[in-house]
Amino acid sequence: MQITRRLEFDAGHRIPNHQSLCRHIHGHRYALEVTLEGEIIDQTGSPEEGMVLDFSQVKAIALEHVVNRWDHAFLVYGKDKVIVDFLSTIPEHRTVIFDCVPTAENLARNAFDILRVPIGTITVTTSALFECAFMRP
Questions:
Q1: CB 76 within 8 A of CB 86
Q2: How far apart (Å, rounded) are the C-alpha atoms in residues 70 and 96?
Q3: Which one, 24, 75, 130, 131, has the greatest CB density within 10 A?
């Protein structure tokens, strides 16, 4: 059985070496989908009886460890020195520095690693047209 909890957040980024408009500073209304696989809990009297996992637990974990940190932040590649240096001049700016280019693919992989998803998939959507999913092989 699979369950999916979708959360949304807004963030800015750029893809510094991209050959199109994505090399410029811009932002997205991202969607992060956490999909988990498991057996339905059939323990009589358990608060999770009939569930794989309570959706509110999935939400709370994803909010605490990913969404609340990335929401209304600028997601930047640590080697994008021009942007990192610029953002450091803005007092109290919400900046999240990554060790990789903040593409949707890398954000999905990063969220997967942060959340330590045991069995499942993390999907990141940047618009109605583009999404990617990361799962451990």
A1: no
A2: 7
A3: 75
